[in-house]
């Protein structure tokens, strides 16, 4: 049975259209406004509040906490300093990605770990022989993302303190009114943004404080539909959409290594040992992954042509699509699949994330994508481009 997040007492009153979806057993608003594009505009032009509390959250503590982190993730955790936050994947013994998420180092012996899927059993299995406690804090800690070009101003107004010195992928404790919070400069929109972590019992008070402080900056709540558009523009992955967790994979083809989903930069094969290292070394020695994650721009004139053939005007998809779509290469052979598609209001382009055969992953490669109009399948040109589609300098400034 789904439940409300710690912010539900506030978000439910604002969700006038009652557009909800389930996220990790909690109700998440799909949209608050008449159109999710209003909320998307807040993410890109002002500031948006996004309830991300349904993330699974864990606290690792003890003398061997850092060793557990290093044993599980693909990055060299000995370099993760207090106050830093890392984004990372973690793999099974076959070198296939189980999940991806963030790890924040709270002090020398404590870490906060976030994930899309449950990880408690996996972490405790890998903690065997270590002096470390792994605690699930998913329901005890609420999280509110404050995203957009005016997000820093909003936070400073709410806290009465400067956040100019909080660098990209760093965190620190703070106070907002009487609330003790932890603020990380992280997010899932590809824009300037922060995530505020608070005791779940104080979540409504945090919502009230940030929404009130954000009024002069045009801040508004944003739901999952707006977030989906923003994260595709940023080239961010979504579990069970852009790749399948190795736990859920039913066939070998459904399991992905980090190198196959654009996360190879986060794999340190010089690290002495971590779960999946031998398999990833073997993949590299065999010539690398057979497929790659790429960005695509779909040809709008081809969409117009297919629509006209059915006597219809072309329609830009209002919401992002998570439906897989076949990709074709030379000779009409299928060479991969699109995983996420959206019309980018900012770029005025139809864009997509896709998995393609490695020889066809170079920017500029021309492919064909299936496109359906009124149940009639056709093809539109799709050009491979560099990811991310949108990466404003303010994100890291």
Give structural notes.
The structure is a single chain. The mean pLDDT is 97. The chain has 397 residues and is α+β, with helices and mostly antiparallel strands. Among the domains are: 3-55 and 139-222, Gyrase A, domain 2 (2-Layer Sandwich); 290-397, Aminomethyltransferase beta-barrel domains (Elongation Factor Tu (Ef-tu), domain 3). It starts with a strand and ends in a 12-residue tail after the last strand. It is 21% helix and 32% strand. Helix 2 (36-45) crosses helix 7 and helix 5 crosses helix 6 (203-214). The strands form four sheets. The chain has a six-stranded mixed beta sheet. Strands 15-18-17-16-19-20 form a six-stranded antiparallel barrel. The protein is globular.
How is this fold's topology laid out?
Blueprint: E1 3-4, H1 8-14, E2 20-23, E3 26-29, H2 36-45, E4 48-51, E5 56-61, H3 65-72, E6 85-91, E7 97-107, E8 110-115, H4 120-126, E9 133-136, E10 141-147, H5 151-159, E11 171-176, E12 179-184, E13 193-199, H6 203-214, E14 220-221, H7 224-233, H8 277-285, E15 291-298, H9 300-309, E16 325-328, E17 334-344, E18 349-357, E19 366-373, E20 376-385
Parallel strand pairs: 1-3, 4-14
Antiparallel strand pairs: 2-3, 4-10, 5-8, 5-9, 6-7, 7-8, 10-13, 11-12, 12-13, 15-18, 15-20, 16-17, 16-19, 17-18, 19-20
Helix pairs in contact: 2-7, 5-6
């Amino acid at each position: 049975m789904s439940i409300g997040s710690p912010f539900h007492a506030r978000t439910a009153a604002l969700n006038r259209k009652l557009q909800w979806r389930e996220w990790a057993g909690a109700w998440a608003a799909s949209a608050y406004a008449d159109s999710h594009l209003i909320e998307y505009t807040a993410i890109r032009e002002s500031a948006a509040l996004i309830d991300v509390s349904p993330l699974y959250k864990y606290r690792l503590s003890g003398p061997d906490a850092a060793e557990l982190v290093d044993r599980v993730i693909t990055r060299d955790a000995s370099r993760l300093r207090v106050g830093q936050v890392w984004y990372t994947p973690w793999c099974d013994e076959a070198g296939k990605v189980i999940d991806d998420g963030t790890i924040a180092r709270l002090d020398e012996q404590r870490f906060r770990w976030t994930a899309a899927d449950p990880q408690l059993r996996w972490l405790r299995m890998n903690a065997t022989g270590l002096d470390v406690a792994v605690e699930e804090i998913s329901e005890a800690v609420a999280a509110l993302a404050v995203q957009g070009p005016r997000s820093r101003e909003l936070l400073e107004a709410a806290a009465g303190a400067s956040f100019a010195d909080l660098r990209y992928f760093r965190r620190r404790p703070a106070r907002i009114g009487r609330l003790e919070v932890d603020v990380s400069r992280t997010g899932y929109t590809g824009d300037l943004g922060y995530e505020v972590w608070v005791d779940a019992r104080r979540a409504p008070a945090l919502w009230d404080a940030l929404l009130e402080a954000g009024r002069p900056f045009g801040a508004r709540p944003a739901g999952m539909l707006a977030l989906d558009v923003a994260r595709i523009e940023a080239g961010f992955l979504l579990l069970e959409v852009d790749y399948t967790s190795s736990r859920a994979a039913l066939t070998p083809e459904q399991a992905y290594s980090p190198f196959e989903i654009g996360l190879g930069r986060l794999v340190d094969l010089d690290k002495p040992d971590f779960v999946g290292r031998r398999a990833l070394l073997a993949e590299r020695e065999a010539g690398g992954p057979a497929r790659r994650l790429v960005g695509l721009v779909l040809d709008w004139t081809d969409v117009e042509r297919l629509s006209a053939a059915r006597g219809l005007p072309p329609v830009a998809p209002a919401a992002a699509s998570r439906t897989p779509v076949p990709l074709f290469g030379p000779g009409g052979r299928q060479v991969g699949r699109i995983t996420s598609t959206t019309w980018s209001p900012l770029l005025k382009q139809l864009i997509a994330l896709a998995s393609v055969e490695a020889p066809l992953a170079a920017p500029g490669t021309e492919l064909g994508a299936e496109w359906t109009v009124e149940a009639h399948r056709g093809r539109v040109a799709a050009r491979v481009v560099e990811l991310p589609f949108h990466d404003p300098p303010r994100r890291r400034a």
